[in-house]
C-alpha cells in the first residue's frame, strides 16, 4: 500500500492515461524512442507508453494551469490599472537523487515546446547553485554536498526573483556531472520564456533564515516519488553504469575515474556508504518531507514505471 497524504486525489495509471483520449496528440509526432534515449538521464528508463499514458495528460493539465495563470495575471493588472508584464509560469520539479526527476523535466520541456514553441520553454537545475567544491571543502561542507547548507541560496533566490519579475535576460550557473562541480564562469542564458522549469532536490525545501522560499515562486510543483529502497537500487545501478562508461572513456579527469581503478566490489561498497551517510539522510530529513508541498506527485514503482499520479485537492 502506498503511503499518501490526505489532501491528494490518487489517480491510477490506467485512469490517468484515459485522459489522453480527450486531447490532441500533436506533441507525439515529435517524440520517438530515439528522442527519449537522447533526453533521458543516464541509466534512467522511460518508454513511449509513459509518454502517452502519463506525460500527455500531464502536459494538457499544465496547459490548463498556464491558461488560468495568464487570465489571473491580466485580471490582476487590469484591477490595479497597471500594464500587463511578461512573467513566466514557473514549474518546479523535485525528488531524490536517482529518482528520475531530470528525465521528467527534460521530457516536459520537449513536449511543452511542441505546444508553445521551442524558445518559449526554458529549463535549468539547482545543481548550478551548489557552492563550488573548493568552497565546500574550505567550509568543511564537502561531505554535506546536496544538503541545504551546500547551496548558494542567496544567488538562487535572487535568480528566482528576477525570473518572476520578468527580466529580459537571465543567466544560471552551469554544473558538470563529469567533474561533479560548478563550471567557473559558465552559464545558461534565458530570454523571456513563457514557461520556466527548474529541477532539483531542493526546489521545495524551506530556506533557513530567509523571508521567502524557492517554492514561493512556483505556479506548479511536481514531486517524483518512489519507495526509498527502490531509489537506493537505482542509485547503485546508475553508479555501476557510470563507472563502466568512465572506464571505457579513459578520461582520468572524470570525477568517477578513481573508482574505476579499484575492484568493482570495493567501489560499490563506497557507493553504498555514500548512500547511507549522505543521500539517505538527505532524503529522509530534507527531501521526502517536502513531498506534501507539491501540487502533483508522480509515484514510481519497479522499472521507473509511474503507477499513480497524486493531484492535490486543496
Automatic annotation (TrEMBL):
InterPro entries: P-loop_NTPase, PanK, PRK/URK. GO terms for molecular function: ATP binding; pantothenate kinase activity. GO terms for cellular component: cytoplasm. ATP binds at residues 95-102. It comes from the Bacteria. Signal peptide: none annotated. Its EC number is 2.7.1.33. It is an enzyme of class 2 (transferase). Keywords: ATP-binding, Coenzyme A biosynthesis, Cytoplasm, Kinase, Nucleotide-binding, Transferase. Its main location: cytoplasm. It catalyses: (R)-pantothenate + ATP = (R)-4'-phosphopantothenate + ADP + H(+). Pfam families: PRK. The keyword Coiled coil does not apply. Pathway: Cofactor biosynthesis; coenzyme A biosynthesis; CoA from (R)-pantothenate: step 1/5. Residues 90-238 form the Phosphoribulokinase/uridine kinase domain. GO terms for biological process: coenzyme A biosynthetic process. The keyword Transit peptide does not apply. It is found in: Cytoplasm. NCBIfam families: panK_bact. Belongs to the prokaryotic pantothenate kinase family. This is Pantothenate kinase. The gene is coaA.
Amino acid at each position: 500500500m502506498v503511503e499518501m497524504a490526505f489532501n491528494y486525489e490518487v489517480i491510477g495509471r490506467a485512469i490517468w492515461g484515459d485522459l489522453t483520449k480527450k486531447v490532441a496528440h500533436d506533441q507525439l509526432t515529435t517524440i520517438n524512442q530515439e528522442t527519449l534515449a537522447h533526453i533521458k538521464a543516464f541509466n534512467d528508463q522511460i518508454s513511449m507508453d509513459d509518454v502517452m499514458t502519463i506525460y500527455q495528460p500531464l502536459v494538457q493539465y499544465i496547459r490548463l494551469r498556464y491558461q488560468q495563470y495568464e487570465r489571473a495575471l491580466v485580471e490582476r493588472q487590469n484591477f490595479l490599472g497597471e500594464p500587463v508584464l511578461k512573467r513566466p509560469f514557473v514549474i518546479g520539479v523535485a525528488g531524490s537523487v536517482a529518482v528520475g526527476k531530470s528525465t521528467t523535466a527534460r521530457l516536459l520541456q520537449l513536449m511543452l515546446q511542441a505546444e508553445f514553441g521551442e524558445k518559449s520553454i526554458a529549463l535549468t537545475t539547482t545543481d548550478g547553485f551548489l557552492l563550488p567544491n573548493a568552497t565546500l571543502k574550505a567550509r568543511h561542507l564537502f561531505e554535506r554536498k546536496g544538503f541545504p547548507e551546500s547551496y548558494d541560496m542567496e544567488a538562487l533566490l535572487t535568480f528566482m526573483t528576477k525570473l518572476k519579475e520578468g527580466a529580459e535576460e537571465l543567466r544560471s550557473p552551469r554544473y558538470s556531472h563529469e567533474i561533479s562541480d560548478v563550471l567557473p564562469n559558465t552559464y545558461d542564458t534565458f530570454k523571456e520564456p513563457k514557461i520556466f522549469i527548474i529541477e532539483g532536490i531542493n526546489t521545495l525545501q524551506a530556506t533557513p533564515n530567509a523571508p521567502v522560499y524557492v517554492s514561493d515562486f512556483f505556479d506548479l510543483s511536481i514531486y517524483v516519488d518512489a519507495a526509498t529502497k527502490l531509489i537506493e537500487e537505482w542509485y547503485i545501478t546508475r553508479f555501476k553504469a557510470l563507472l563502466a562508461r568512465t572506464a571505457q572513456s579513459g578520461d582520468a579527469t572524470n570525477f568517477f575515474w578513481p573508482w574505476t581503478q579499484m575492484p568493482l566490489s570495493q567501489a560499490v561498497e563506497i557507493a553504498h556508504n555514500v548512500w547511507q551517510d549522505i543521500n539517505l539522510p538527505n532524503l529522509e530529513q530534507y527531501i521526502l518531507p517536502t513531498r506534501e508541498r507539491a501540487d502533483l506527485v508522480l509515484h514510481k514503482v519497479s522499472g521507473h514505471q509511474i503507477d499513480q499520479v497524486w493531484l492535490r485537492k486543496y
